[in-house]
Design brief:
It comes from Loxia leucoptera. This is BORC6 protein. Pfam families: BORCS6 (PF10157). By secondary structure, the chain is mainly alpha-helical. The protein has a domain at about 90-160. The chain is about 75% helix and about 5% strand. The chain has 4 helices and 2 strands. Strands 1-2 form a two-stranded antiparallel sheet. The radius of gyration is 49 Å and the shape is rod-shaped. The mean pLDDT is about 85.
């Protein structure tokens, strides 16, 4: 099956090479016909008429009604393209506004987080400073506790003597 398809392609390419230039790039085959203008003129000539030589024109007259229809359709297409472009423009503006809003919200969140982290760090340093102050203020407590125990022991001995 594959050899048959390759054979058809080779035969078709050989036939095309007689009528013009064949270019191959991988699986893509391009064909450029020799004397393309003459071929276009011949394709427009009625079947019964003999082909006209290079100087004469065999292109049939253009129907004015068909031309007006084409103009009307072109106007409709242009209007539809304008409307489509307006819709795309509005959609892009809406998406841009939404993107800007998201970016601003993200920026505000980052700023807020930065401020909260800064305040937390300051509060932690203040707490550490207070704890150090409390530790310094509490340094005499062990000596005071020893004196209280000593006094308590002395009071207990005095009570024991008084009994």
């Amino acid at each position: 099956g594959r050899q048959l398809a390759e054979g058809r392609r080779a035969t078709l390419a050989s036939a095309l090479e007689l009528e013009g230039t064949v270019l191959r790039e991988g699986r893509l085959t391009q064909f450029v016909a020799n004397n393309l203008e003459r071929r276009i003129r011949l394709s427009g000539a009625p079947r019964g008429d003999p082909p006209v030589g290079g100087g004469g024109s065999s292109i049939p007259a253009i129907d004015p009604g068909a031309l007006q229809d084409v103009v009307a359709l072109a106007g409709q297409v242009a209007a539809q393209v304008d409307e489509l472009l307006r819709n795309v423009h509005c959609g892009l503006q809406a998406l841009t506004a939404l993107s800007v809003g998201c970016i601003q919200t993200y920026r505000d969140g980052v700023e807020s987080l930065g401020e909260a982290a800064d305040l937390s760090i300051r509060a932690m340093y203040a707490l550490v400073a207070r704890c150090e102050e409390l530790d310094r203020a509490m340094q005499p407590v062990p000596a005071l506790a020893k004196r209280i125990r000593d006094m308590k022991g002395t009071l207990e001995r005095l009570e024991g003597l008084c009994k």
